[in-house]
Here is the input.
Amino acid sequence: MTTTIHKSTNAAATMNNETTPLFATDYKVYINHTDAGGIVYHANHLVFFENCRRDWFTKLGLNGYFLQTDAGDVQHFVVSQADLQYKKAILLDEVINVRIDKVELKPASIIFYQSIHRHTADNNAKTSNSLLSSTKIVIACVQNQIRPESISKDKIGSNDTGATATPMRPIRVPQTLRTTIEQAIAQHIAE
Here is the structure.
């Protein structure tokens, strides 16, 4: 089952990147995000996208990264694919708007289409958004297979670190997480 959401006010708005995002939040760019020239490091685009997804999960009342089953198994998400397109530089001290534009729920993963925008104002006091970067990020749901165990003196120095065991295995997106995201999507469409 795949659930996809992308809401646009109209066709003309879509052409101008003026879609209504599923979630959007502003972040201030600090010196630690930039290089010596005051331009955000390319890898920090991923940090802003990650923070946006995390903030959305928090708004939904979810801890979507670490879920524990009744049996005590730990389930979480890992990024399995990231496709970024850089359009314009993000600069020191500006406030950027990071968005979740579209979400696709797959059986064992969630695909996020996200973007970063700069707020600009023209002489007529109209505010527009300039696209700085966009991404498609796939996060896969996995379950830890190895439980931490205490280190005994006879294991210290041995090569038996569990390297032959698979540390995690893919699993289906937990139903509570799926239901919460589907409800958020449905509410967004209704607005």
Remarks:
- The first strand starts at residue 3 and ends at 5.
- The first helix runs from residue 11 to 15.
